[in-house]
Each structure stands twice: as structure tokens, then as C-alpha cells.
Amino acid sequence: MTIQLVEQLKTLDQKHFLHPTSSIEEQQKYGPAAIFCEGKGIYLKDLEGNTYIDGMSSLWNVNVGHGRTEIAEVAKEQMEKLAFSSCFATFSNEPAIKLAAKIAELTPGDLNTVFFTSGGSESNDTAIKLARHYWILKGQPNRQKIISRSLSYHGLAYGSTNATGIEGFRKFTNSPAPDFHYVDKDSPEELRRLIEELGPEKVAAFISEPVQGAGGVNLPKPDYFQKVREICDEYGVLFIADEVITGFGRTGKNFGIEHFGVVPDMMTFAKGVSSGYAQLGGVIISEKIHKDFCELSKGILMHGYTYSGHPTACAVGLKNLEIIEREGLVQNAKIMGEEMLKGFQALQQKYDFIGDVRTFGLLGAIGLVKNRETGELFDPLLSPIAVQEMTKRGLILRTVTYGQDTIVFSPPLIITKNELNEMLRIVDETFAYLQKEIIGNGVK
Ligand code: PMP
């Protein structure tokens, strides 16, 4: 594409496209960061001819990598046969039925019945509404309160925004919804105290990511979820695991919560269920909840989206899960995750400004600090400069700057050892630049 045409697109973008979770100021000043036009495996290409490693699987979601012809073919076939039909009023379709059954087969314990959505935010809103409705059916209508953890991210629809523990997202508007409460992310004791304080008879559910993603790839203590499960059981509170990032192999097991040996009452999923090839998500509920719904629900379940059970999206999901299984990508995430940690530790040896490094399968984080002993952060923070420099060198990563200065990683589950080394080489090269040009010369 000619430079003129790219410039034209950039101008149109600035004028007509309000971007999600983006700096309007930066967009207006510089135009879009890149206009992507192609993807293959772990790589993305933009209209200006630059190639990048997609170190975040785009938004933690393109787990099987870009450019999968067989998924495109399935989508084409399904669209030609039946692109869309409704699942309201008990109408159904084959891909939705088969995908629900497949997900039930993969999920732990008695999580066996699926409600479909178009993404993670809708899934968490759905879980919150199903939990509250469940208690109404059970004759405990005052159980409406939802508890979540500091630094959690559950999406940006209305309920999921209010459940999100990263305050900045809630402050975007000035009218928080009632009945949302927050606890320190590391303290099960605080959860117990809050339930007692609110009154257990008023608490509907506790929601948590098994490993926090957008909050900084924050790993829980090994016994955290065991304690949470016990507390929820003790007070009759439902436990919702948000597996939107951690679901379908990212952590080296099918689901993140499986690492901790507990089974939630509901699990929400999105992203990895379709690797982003179609907009798809959902909630899977336990047999116990489903049985109660079957026995107690009269009339219509007053919740549903046009695209709940979208035939094309579900056909894409099925093919995506088939690829994950056929190519052993869950196991690859485990093995490559271990390699990624070794790579991070080698970098940590080399650069004093690296604080904590952590991985959980193919989720990773490198924390940057001015002082390792005190944990003091750079001012201004270093990670935004770092990822900008990495982009220039052909690697796309993300920062987390809520009370920390962290670079997060979430490469596609297909990544090979060589590709991982290439990614780490760019990180190394960028850190060497930062050491010399930014930190070394006293800017920091
Ligand atoms: N939950 C978690 C854990 C997420 O990471 C995200 C998205 N980053 C969401 C929910 C929201 O998903 P979506 O953006 O598809 O609505």
C-alpha cells in the first residue's frame, strides 16, 4: 500500500474511530500505533510493511496463532449453511449444542451446563446475574452482593466494570452500582471478615481470576483458593472463577483453577475458546445450580443476548478446541512457560532494574524497579518506555502500571523454542538500550 493511502487511513482513524482502552490524546497526536493487515502464527504485519511478534496473543486471546486456514474454512462453511439462527425460546443449533458438550467435557468437576455470550464482559455480567437470580429462586432474595479482589479485571460491561478491582475503570463514570464490594487480593481472611460484616445472608457470590491478568499477572498464594472455597462453602456464597484469560490451556492446564484443586460453582470463559477467530464467550454452571434452576425456574429465564449460541461463532470455537487438543497446545504452554521463566531469570541476572519475574504457564510478568531492595519504582515509570522501544524492534507487549511498573507477556500457545528465544532476544536488546540510553545517562 502506498504511503499516501496509509496516511489517508490514519486520518480517517483519527476522525471516525474512537478506540477501546486507548489514549485519545496519543491517537490524535500520532494516529494509530499500527494498522495491522496480516497475521501468521505468532507474527503480525502492518500496512507499512513492519512485522511484529504478537507477544500478547493480541489481547491474551489468539492462542492458536494467526492465519489458521482450517478455522476460516469452518466459518465459511457454517456461514454458507446457516450463518445465524436464534437460541431464544429454546430454538437451538448443532454447533452450539456440540460446543456446550465439549466445554462440559473439558471443565473440571460437575461444571456441565453452558450459557453462551459474545465475550468476557458479557460472561461476567451473566454470571453475576445468574448468581443473583439463583438466590431469588432459592428463596433468599437478599443475597445480591458480589465480592471481588483488588486489581482484578472482569470486563467493562456494567456489572463486570463494577466487579473489576482496578479502580481506574470504575472511576470512568461517577456512579458505581450498588452491592459490589472488594477485598485485598491476597487475603482470604479479609474475605471472611467482609462476608461477616456484610451479613452472609446478603452475599451472592465471590468472583476471582485464578491468576490475575490485566492487574499484572499476579499469582495467588498456593493455598489461597483452597481457603476461598472453604469460606464460600461455610457461608453459602457462590464461587465464580473468571477463566477468560486462563481458560483453554494458557496456564498449562485446561483451566487455571485446576492448579489449585478446587471446583468453582460457575466458570466464565471467552478469549481462548475461539482464539479470537469469532466473538465468543460463556458461563458454565455446576450440576447443582443447574438442577436447582430446572426445579425452581418458572416461566422464562429473563437473560440472553442475540448472539448467545451463535452458530458460526460456535463452529469456530469447536474447530479451535480441536486444534488445541490435536497439537497438544496445553502441554506446549506448560513447557514453553518453563522456558520463558528461565529466560526471565537470565535477564534478571543481567539487569539490576528487574525486580520480580513470574510466569504461570504462558502468562508472564517482569517487574521493573529503581531499587531492588526497597522496591522503589522509576518516576516516570519505565515499562511504557520499554514497550514502546520493543514495538520499534518488532515485539508487541503490554504494561501494567497500577501501583507497579510491569511488562506482561502472553504469547500464543503455539510458540516454539526458537520463537521464544527471538522474543527474549528483543527484550534483552531493549533492556540493554534502556540501561545505556535511559537509565545510564541519568534520565531516570
Ligand atoms: N475477564 C478477564 C479476566 C479478562 O481478562 C477480560 C478481558 N481482558 C474480560 C473478563 C473481559 O472480556 P472482554 O473484553 O471479551 O469483554
UniProtKB/TrEMBL annotation:
Keywords: Aminotransferase, Pyridoxal phosphate, Transferase. PROSITE patterns: AA_TRANSFER_CLASS_3. The keyword Transferase applies. GO terms for molecular function: pyridoxal phosphate binding; transaminase activity. Pfam families: Aminotran_3. Belongs to the class-III pyridoxal-phosphate-dependent aminotransferase family. This is Aspartate aminotransferase family protein. It comes from Ureibacillus terrenus.
